[in-house]
Amino acid sequence: MQKPTAVFLKEHILPTLACIGFAMVLSATLWWQGLESGVLDQLTRLRTRFQPPIDQRVVVVGIDDDAIQVAGRWPWSRDWHGQFMSSISFGQPVVVAWDILFPEPSSDDSVFIAGAEKLKEHVIFGAYTTDQQPNPQDPPKVDLTQSITNIQGDVSKIPSSPYALLPISSLREVGFTAFCDADPGSDGSIRRVPMLQHVGDRILPSLSLQSLLVYWNLKPSQVRVVLGDAIYLDGGDIRRRIPIDVTGSYFINYRYGYKDANKLGYIWLLKGYMEHYQKNIPHPDLPSVQGKLLLVGQMSTGLSDNGPTPFGPATPLVLVHANAINNILQEDYARRGPNWPVLLGALFFGAIGLVFFPKRKLYQQGCYAVGLPLAYLGLAIFLWIKFSLWIPMLWPVLGFGTLQIFMMVRQLIREQRAKQQIKGMFGTYLSPTLVNRMIESGESPQLGGHKEDITAYFSDIQAFSTFSELIPPDQLVELMNEYLSACTDILQEEFGTLDKYIGDAIVTIFGAPLALPDHALRACVASQRIQLKLGELRDKWKSEGSKWPDIVTKMQSRIGLNSGETIVGNIGSRTRFNYTMMGDNVNLAARMESGAKSWGVYTMCSEATKTACEKSDANRVVFRPLGRIVVKGRSSAVSIYEIVGLKETVTPQAHECIRIFSEGLARFYARDWAGAIELFNKSLPLEPNQPGVTPGVTNNPSLVYLDIIRHYQAEPPPETWDGTYVMKEK
Q: Which of 417, 554, 667, 697 could cross-link 675 (Cys pair, CB 3.0–4.6 Å)?
């Protein structure tokens, strides 16, 4: 995994997922769902001020407190209901649906049945499912209610019951049967109403659905049910799509409560129509019911047919069906938005906050932390009031708010600990300038192993084992402290990170823990500054007379560099670790240092380092190609280069040497041994390092290639040879 990806996941995505996920998990609890539903109920009551009027085709005929005072204690004699239907039939309503059960026969059923016959095929009687077998009835001679058969989906998910409280058989012969079931959901409120009921081997319509079928004169054959999608009504000019879930239940878009419904009093309507049509007593204010759908139900506070809805804990349940029917007539459906867009939005804006706002001013953070939730709540309210789209309101705000608190607390802690943490962890092996840059940037060091594009630096003193034989321990420590201090100062001035000392060897990282876009250039410059500094030290040691043996005044240091993607970080045990690097590119840098001896140079790098260095500054450092080699432990060839020096320190003679040597190398690749020998003999006297002249020098690249050519003249390489030289030593 790339470092930027790992950082983004750890710093931004994981906290976002944790906070938003916590809120989403909490939203699955019944307690939270009740809280969310309570907010929705408040909005539902609020929007009654802005919504369109109820469909005037739907009229609720309420058995209210006034009716109880006139007709007496409930239940009434069925003569009242018979007279009601006989009288109301003169008004020619399309549907009279009873949200009242009549499961047992009564001594006064004859008047009731006679009244129902006047509304035959326009009257619907309520039924209710039960787990207990009701008293047996004689089957009706004709059952007007037909099953719904065209159903797609898993019908086992439709609410089912072995038994039902059905109207008495004589009523079923003159009217339809429909189910009034409307039970509270998990949040304790009635939000969905089953549009279908599976009783025995039949699937029958609800009171709402059957009322609409009668109103539009549709047959069950014109009903197609796709569970989890919709109920499709298709007949004549009527086309309706009623959205349902997999159980066949409809999500009610509550618009009207007791105060808002289009309602008429049962007794008032009965007396008015009876006097006007049967007793010829004029009633000029008598409301018309022609062509309307009447729902008859209990609306008295003292009766039992009440339940919890968004309008209150004891809402007359006839209003549940009235709202459902009104929705379908006006195609005014409520929708519950899916969670995934809200979740993705919360994660996106949460991560955006973590990415962009930690470094912003406090008031900017506050505006984002408060303004975005308020904007979201405003959007949620608008969507519900205007479009009846319910999206979750509370858990996204909770998750986002938790994330903002986390962000502010984390930022505060980091600000308090950052300076001490950085200085304590890196002050011993980073330059003070680099430490200050890290503090000022606000970037915490990345702990643990991760990949980073860096330049690895290795250096070693030539023939150092001889030093310990010739120099007493105390003087050797003094010498090494002076040498290592000089090298380390230069490395840190170029923003290198000291990895470790291994005796006389120095291992350094350029480009971590704080990224350096020009890490290769800085490593190359540091290598040449160290070679120049070592020349100054040799002169100093020589001036100190007999204090130092001749080997010290001729000290040379070999340096190897390689650039590329490498694993860096605090690596080791849980109790002791070191900020270091590892990987194939690190090994190759070490081979550059050790292999420099074989090519008679003191600073050698890979092509990757040369390319990266020249990308940062094409003229700062002077390189000489040395060929292509396969280092020990690797199978693929790599091009190698000598770092001859910095532009300002390389002499014209050295430039001429590089030019002639490069031509000789081209002849070497072409197997032109004679031409290569001629050119290498020309470059030989121009070499910057000459055996017997330059301190400690025993070889140089021109001499090395002259030896290689002599070997190839005696033992020619195979035809497949491409100029690559295989190293035999590390």
A: 667
- Nearest Cα to Cα of residue 516 among 437, 619, 420, 415: 437
Give SS3 for 197: strand
User: Tell me, what amino acid is at 437?
Assistant: R
Residue 542 CA to chain centroid, in angstroms?
67
Three-state SS for 124?
Answer: strand
Residue 381: HSE in the Cβ half-sphere, 13 Å Cα cutoff: 13
Nearest to 630 by CA among 722, 507, 563, 558: 722
- How far is the C-alpha of 74 from the C-alpha of 2, rounded, in Å? 77
Separation between Cα atoms, residue 641 and residue 662, nearest integer Å: 11
List average pLDDT for each run of 10 residues in the chain, which is 730 residues long: 67 81 85 86 87 88 89 88 94 95 89 92 94 83 88 94 92 94 89 94 94 94 95 91 96 88 90 90 88 93 84 91 94 89 85 74 76 89 90 87 80 67 54 56 60 95 87 92 94 92 93 91 97 94 91 93 92 74 93 91 96 95 94 83 95 95 95 94 94 84 94 90 77
CA distance 232 to 212: 12
Q: Tally Cβ neighbours within 10 Å of residue 620.
A: 16
CB of 454 closer than 8 Å to CB of 567: no
Name the β-bridge partners of 206: 179
Task: State how far Cα 664 lies from the chain centre.
Answer: 59
Q: Name the CATH superfamily, with its identifier, for domain 438-647.
A: Nucleotide cyclase, GGDEF domain (3.30.70.1230)
Would you kindly state where each structural domain of the chain is located, as residue ranges? 3-38+337-422, 51-335, 438-647, 651-730
- First vs last Cα of the chain: how many Å apart? 31
Alpha carbon distance 24, 22 (integer Å) = 5
| Cα 113 to Cα 109: distance, rounded to the nearest angstrom | 6
Query: Which pTM does this prediction carry?
Result: 0.58
| Three-class DSSP category at 85 | helix
C-alpha–C-alpha distance, residues 614 and 621, integer Å: 8
